[in-house]
Design brief:
alpha+beta, 5 helices, disordered C terminus
């Protein structure tokens, strides 16, 4: 009876935590969506007959609607990350993945985009599309938070323990130690300054969800003034289920 009572109490604690997390998520989502709705409503209320004013209003409204769409899509993605069909595993060549991310990064802005790849072909079992999405999120984050022209490096490697590491390293202002844990939370942001345009605080939460879905984790190495390195640490068989030992150990 004592063991049953302990198990029951643990179950109640998990349910309470789940409800609290869900309620907080809904509250945060409502806050994030309320702002663009207010902006759209305010501009429409003040809309006049001047053609130039109408054009500017339409541009603002379209930008805010696009931002709302991104927030909703990101929220749906995070919800789907908890479903068993979130990943579609297949063979992924690490070098090709890094070069693909670099090719997409070049379109973001004019800065040195460097790539570091393993010597020779290295394949893992993972969802290539999701890993690409996570790395592109990190690249876009680096572009937003670092001065124009500073280099960013995208890399991949297999460490001595057989763990796959994918990273994005910048030479920007860095991140305060107090923010290292919380910036991966939904709707969180580092520091106290305004969030960059277009950011809703979900990008790093998505990166973390993708890493965890593969049976891995996300990490941050940074000090103020010393740049930041965001990395995904994945098992060699990173399909999210099954045998996660390094290939050479199987």
């Amino acid at each position: 009876m004592g063991e049953l009572a302990t198990t029951f109490n643990q179950m109640l604690d998990r349910i309470e935590t789940a409800f609290t997390t869900q309620r907080q998520f809904v509250d945060d989502a409502g806050h994030e969506l309320r702002t663009p709705i207010t902006v759209v409503q305010g501009h429409l209320d003040l809309l006049g007959d001047d053609p130039e004013e109408r054009r500017e209003t339409i541009e603002v409204v379209q930008d805010e609607l696009d931002r709302m769409a991104r927030i909703v899509n990101d929220m749906l993605l995070l919800a789907k990350a908890e479903q068993p069909d979130f990943l579609r595993p297949g063979p992924v060549d690490l070098g090709e993945l890094v070069e693909d991310v670099r090719a997409r990064a070049v379109a973001l802005d004019d800065r040195p985009w460097n790539a570091v790849v393993p010597p020779g072909p290295v394949e893992i079992v993972a969802d290539r599309g999701r890993l690409l999405q996570a790395l592109v999120n990190l690249v876009a984050n680096a572009a937003r938070h670092t001065p124009s022209g500073t280099p960013v490096t995208i890399g991949a490697a297999v460490d001595q323990a057989g763990e796959v590491v994918l990273w994005v390293r910048d030479e920007g202002p860095g991140i305060a130690p107090a923010d290292h844990g919380r910036i991966f939370e939904r709707f969180a942001r580092a520091g106290t300054g305004p969030r960059p345009a277009g950011g809703a605080g979900l990008g790093l939460a998505i990166v973390s969800a993708i890493a965890e879905a593969h049976g891995g984790r996300v990490a941050l190495a940074s000090v103020p003034g010393g740049g930041a390195t965001f990395s995904l640490h994945l098992p060699s068989t990173a399909s999210g289920d099954g045998d996660r030992r390094p290939a050479e150990a199987r």
